[in-house]
Amino acid sequence: MLLPLFVQAQFRLTGTVTQSGTNKPLPGASIRIQNQGKSTQTDASGSYAFRNLPAGNYTLSVSYLGFSAMQKTITLNADESLSFELAAAAFLADEVIVRSTRATERSATTFKNISSAEIEANNFGQDLPFILNNTPGVVVTSDAGGGVGYTGIRIRGSDATRVNVTLNGIPYNDSESQGTFWVNMPDFASSVDNIQIQRGVGTSTNGAGAFGGSLNIQTAGTSIDPYAEVNNTYGSFNTLKNTVKLGTGLINNKWSFDGRLSRIKSDGFIDRAASDLKSYFMSGGYQGEKDLLRINVFGGSEQTYQAWNGIPESRLKGDAQGMQDYIARNYLSEADAANLLNSGNRTYNPFTYKDQTDNYWQNHYQLLYARQLTDKLTFNGALHYTDGRGYYEEYKADQKFKNYGLADVILGGDTTTRTNLVRRRWLDNNFYGLTYNLNYQANSKLSLTLGGAYNEYDGKHFGEITWAQFASNGQLGDHYYDNTGKKQDFNIFAKANFNATEQLSLFADLQYRNLNYQVNGTEKNLNVLDINDKLNFFNPKVGASYFLNAQSNFYASFSVANKEPNRDDYVNATANLYPLSERLYNTEAGYRFKNEQLQAGINIYHMQYKDQLVLTGKINDVGESIRQNVDDSYRLGVEVDASYTISPKFMLNANAALSKNKIRNYIDYLYEYDDNGDISNIITTNYRNTDISFSPAAVAFAELAYAPVKGFAVALQNKYVSKQFMDNTQDDTRKLDAYFVSNIRAGYTFSAWGVKKVNLSLLANNIFDKQYESNGYTYSSLYQGVRTTENFYFPQAGTNFLLSLNLKF
Q1: Which of 222, 240, 197, 8 is nearest to 96 (CA)?
Q2: Which GO terms describe its molecular function (predicted)?
Q3: Where is 612: in which H helix or E strand?
Q4: What are the distances in angstroms from CA 600 to CA 40, 401, 556, 597?
Q5: Which of 166, 206, 331, 358 is the most buried (most CB within 10 A)?
Q6: Sign of CA dihedral 230, 755, 716, 40
Q7: Which residues are 705's β-sheet partners?
Q8: Selected residue with higher pLDDT from 22 and 581
């Protein structure tokens, strides 16, 4: 109601996109009106149309894979026709590297493309999950509360271990834990060209199975012109980001070299949750008429003060008696008790030891090659190697010598069985392998893809004591535990896309995956490990798309995915009883519409799990929580995603995900302890149709963008996440409350002082200072018939700001 309405003449712009010299239509070519937020695609005859355009000057850009892009400017004061003839590219385009694992407009798959412009506009130095926070069904969290340091992402309620991530088609998920640790690649977004998010199973890809979604990331490709950039951000919690980027552009129309250096520092919202992050990215490429060769070398180092224990509920709520009870239950020292009682309600960090840090270094090496073998056949492959090494250090009080393989100490005739100490737990790993794809375009109706990968992981886990109050018989540098993890991962897949008619497209996607996982040695609790599991998976997918016209289509698909347990599932299993692998039956159906003003889609999904692994309250013989298979669980939901250009100055973006996420039959375990701290009884409770933990029933986002003058835009962003339960009992005393958070993003771009592009941007987060928690955990126990539940939360920052100045030369 507040939007101004203008009565003015509206015109129509139409045309065709064809191949130069042959006049062959190019269906699916992208046409974009620059600086207007309007785009469309050509239909089967190569035609396009923009309607209801006011009079004025417009610049249209047209792109199509394998062809050189083209721009034309037109003055519109009546209905006009503007056609394009694209020439075959003089070199192979970078997009061929990821084409085999990407979904397209004709795919019966639920996906969202994030362009380089969107990534750049939202990149203020926060980790990549926060840049993706505005996409459907996504919930993000930050241990430090401000988006820098350890961050997490969930898609459709599935955590990072169930979200497959690839970088140029190469797996990024950790082979053992299956998680993704963005803190190891700070400011990686500054080297990303585009991202495709596939929700659900998606298309066949490399690496761990996708149970909630896939992030298919393509790094920046060739820049035609040389460039230099300096990007700087400063904001709340002394957050500082400095980035320098350089590129040669194309040298002799064949060679290019690009580089980036970044540094990010932040004190964090949570006490002492500081981050010191550094990263680099280097790329060199050769592009010929039929060949593309690219070498990427990138990596990072991080030192992050630990904030991963969260805040107990009593401290969060300022409950004085509750804190005293917490101190007594957990035998806190006088110093730790004072820290708890005197910290802020929302910023408390239980760690006070000065070197309570996580430290990690990681380097990636990628050799990417693609070749146009014939007019119809394209090959691309990659060799990759990643090495990572790091540790987290922690102070531990009153530790038993025997838990570290050490002898008790005799002092003055008295036997001392415990000591204060500082320990480091190390991970030293190597990950390497190859990926490949053959893409065959038989004709305008049929395309085939044969692809796969073979990867190996070799990881060492060990612990050291770097200081002890009483040294016992240990020596500096000794390992008190040592084990190795080895994993071989092979997959092969075949895809077929068949355009049965101009309206109907069919696809089939078949994948076979073979795994061999071994763990040997002693783990951190000094238990001997001898794990050897071999798994074979078959993952079929079929689907169809039906086009009503060039602007709209229906699609439906059915997929099966299988996923192996993670390292902890094997290591913490009771008496080497390996958990079962998980299986997912995924059905998706939806409708998409796209014209020059409106892009919208609605998707309905059903994800039926067999043997999903969840926490049940059960613990192993050393008291660690273990996941167990539940026979029958599901996710059922609907997702809506839309973008509407209201006028040349106003744009509305919105999405919503509504879901029902249930375990049909769930058994919860509660342990009762006696005066000696031993388990005296186990109480089980049956729950039927209970909610899956961390699966909000509603996630919604809305953004109103306003561009009053050239170069300036401001957007109001709103995000809503409904309540989430922290375990699978659907108990309101163990939940995260719903939250509604509003941000403002503003940017002004201009040229001055001989600088090609100056951009000044502001991100104001949580402008209404909402107090909310986006993550947490819980556990319960019984003593003398009284139940005690410990809830821990990860509060997110209140109102905070990030201001950036970016210069492009």
Answers
A1: 222
A2: siderophore uptake transmembrane transporter activity
A3: strand 598-619
A4: 12, 63, 16, 10
A5: 206
A6: negative
A7: 651, 715
A8: 581
Integer angstrom CA distances of residue 244 from 195, 217, 398:
22, 21, 47
Question: 6 pLDDT band (50/70/90 cuts)?
Answer: very low
- Please state, in angstroms and rounded to a whole number, the distance separating the CA atoms of residues 52 and 11: 5
> How many Å apart are CA 239 and CA 344, to the nearest integer?
20
What is the spatial distance between Cα 774 and Cα 371, in angstroms, rounded to a whole number?
A: 46
Question: Hey, what are 248's tokens?
Answer: 């040669």
Query: In whole angstroms, what is the distance from residue 278 CA to residue 638 CA?
Result: 40
Buried residues in 214-246 as b, exposed as e (16+ CB within 10 A): bbbbbbbbbeeeebebebebbbbbebbbbbebb
Under 8 Å between Cβ of 599 and 113: no
Three-state secondary structure call for residue 585: strand
Give the model's confidence band at 92: pLDDT under 50 very low, under 70 low, under 90 confident, else very high. Answer: low
The model carries a pTM of: 0.89
Percent over 70 (pLDDT), the chain: 98
- pLDDT tens, position by position, 229-264: 999 999 999 999 999 999 999 898 899 999 999 999
CA distance 721 to 480: 44
Residue with tokens 């439906």: 556
Q: Say how many C-beta atoms besides its own lie within 10 A of residue 295's C-beta.
A: 16
- Average pLDDT over the chain, rounded to whole? 92
Dist. CA 160–CA 179, nearest whole Å: 5
pLDDT digits (tens, 9 = 90+) for 345-367: 999 999 999 999 999 999 999 99
Token code pair at residue 386: 């990643």
Residue type, 527: N
Polymer length of the chain: 809
Q: What CA–CA distance (Å, rounded) separates 239 from 267?
A: 7
If one compares 259 and 98, the residue with the highest pLDDT of the two is 259
Which segments of 605-710 does DSSP mark as H helices, in order? none
Separation CA 485–CA 521 (nearest Å): 9
What distance in Å separates the CA atoms of residue 792 and residue 773, rounded to the nearest whole number? 10
Q: Contact, 178 vs 208, CB < 8 A?
A: yes
Contact 299, 361 (CB under 8 A): yes
Ranges of H-type helices in 209-357? 313-317, 320-329, 334-342
* pLDDT at residue number 289: 83
With cut-offs at 50, 70 and 90, classify the pLDDT of residue 271.
Answer: very high
- Backbone dihedral region for residue 441 (phi beyond 0: left; psi -120 to 50: alpha; all else: beta): beta
What pLDDT sits at residue 546?
Answer: 95
Backbone angles phi, psi at 613, to 5 degrees: -90, 125
Torsions phi, psi of 341, nearest 5?
A: -75, -30
What CA–CA distances, in Å, run from 366 to 97, 261, 682, 802? 12, 18, 51, 33
- 412's CB contacts (< 8 A; 6+ apart) are none
Region label for 568, one of left (φ > 0), alpha (ψ between -120 and 50) or beta (otherwise): alpha
d(CA 720, CA 656) in angstroms, rounded, equals 9
Please name the helix (run of DSSP H) or strand (run of DSSP E) that holds residue 604, with its range, or none.
strand 598-619
43-47, 177-181, 373-377, 396-400: segment of lowest average pLDDT: 43-47
Tokens 């737990």 correspond to: 425
Which tens digits make up the pLDDT trace of 174-210?
Answer: 999 999 999 999 999 999 999 999 999 988 888 877 8
CA distance linking residue 762 with residue 364, whole number of Å = 32
Does the pLDDT value for residue 9 go beyond 70? no
Cα–Cα dist 63/95, whole Å: 12
Q: Summarize the confidence of residues 683-704 as an average pLDDT.
A: 97
Q: What is the pLDDT of residue 681?
A: 92
Q: Which of 10-14, 68-72, 302-306, 678-682 has the highest mean pLDDT?
A: 302-306
**Count of CB atoms situated within 10 Å of the CB of 772:** 18
Answer yes or no: are the C-beta atoms of 801 and 765 closer than 8 Å.
Answer: yes
Contact status, residue 232 vs residue 760, Cβ threshold 8 Å: no
Strand 479-499 to 504-522 pairing: antiparallel
